[in-house]
Design brief:
CATH superfamily: Nucleic acid-binding proteins
Structural class: alpha/beta
Strand order of the largest sheet: 2-3-4-6-5
Order of helices and strands: HEHHEEEEE
CATH class: Mainly Beta
Radius of gyration: 20 Å
CATH architecture: Beta Barrel
Number of helices: 3
Shape: elongated
Distance between the termini: 59 Å
Number of strands: 6
Amino acid sequence: MKKLLIITGILILGAGIYGIYEFSRGHESNANAKSDVTISANELLTAFQTGEEEANAKYNDKVIEVTGEVREATQTDGKTIVRLDAGDSMAGVTCELDDQAKHKRTDFKTGDPVTFKCTCTGILMDVVLVRCVEK
């Protein structure tokens, strides 16, 4: 009985240590990830506008390399968000820079050409890309 309690205690302690490790480890940067798709901001927005269900299946949770021109860039609560022009005055592609990665720059000017590697989360008004790093 004593051996059973010791073994159980060791297993619980091991599981707890592993859980803390997994919780605190963060996420892997997209900087070194292989792109699943390379696409322009205009093509990405068009894909979601013409067939959201198909686009969700094709792009969601994938590493996307997206190219476009900066429409606007904002910094809010320590996060840099770059909105790419996708040829639609009401919608675009929103790229939220990865706050755990080192970036070449965080000051983007309107009209700057950029290429980001991001993870796609779908569309609201804009196509939303997160954990972005500039390529």
